[in-house]
């Protein structure tokens, strides 16, 4: 639930600013909430449980991409 709350927080900022960074952060936290949801559904002793962490990797890669994209676009359009 905390990840979804963070996603809604970033959606609010995205709606106000239309900055892609906030949209990607919201998407990342939504993906992270899917990770926690999947982990909650799997039994603790399931051997496939570690595959769910690929979802978390995608979330962190989205955050890295968002930061890279923000820095790249700010250099192209100095304000």
Structure write-up:
By secondary structure, this protein is an all-alpha fold. It has one domain. It has three helices and no strands. Helix 1 runs antiparallel to helix 2 and helix 2 packs antiparallel against helix 3. It is elongated. The N and C termini lie far apart (37 Å). 14% of the residues are buried. The model has no long low-confidence stretch (mean pLDDT 89).
Brief rundown of the structure:
By secondary structure, this protein is mainly α. Helices cover 78% and strands 0% of the residues. Helix 1 runs antiparallel to helix 2 and helix 2 runs antiparallel to helix 3.
Keywords summarizing the entry:
79 residues; mainly alpha; 3 helices; 78% helix; 0% strand
Instruction: Please report the total strand number as a whole number.
Output: 0
Order of helix and strand elements from N to C terminus: HHH
* Overall pLDDT confidence: 89
- What helical percentage do the residues reach? over 70%
- The structure class reads mainly alpha
Query: How far is the N terminus from the C terminus?
Result: 37 Å
Keywords: Membrane, Transmembrane, Transmembrane helix
Transmembrane segments: 21-44, 50-68
InterPro entries: DUF5985 (IPR046027)
Write the layout of secondary structure elements.
Blueprint (H helix, E strand, L loop, with lengths): L1 H16 L2 H22 L11 H24 L3
Helix pairs in contact: 1-2, 2-3
């Amino acid at each position: 639930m905390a990840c979804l709350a963070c996603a809604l927080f970033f959606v609010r900022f995205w709606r106000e600013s239309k900055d892609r960074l906030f949209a990607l952060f919201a998407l990342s936290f939504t993906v992270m909430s899917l990770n926690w949801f999947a982990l909650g559904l799997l039994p603790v002793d399931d051997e496939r449980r570690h595959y769910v962490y690929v979802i978390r990797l995608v979330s962190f890669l989205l955050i890295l991409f968002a930061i890279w994209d923000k820095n790249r676009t700010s250099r192209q359009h100095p304000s």
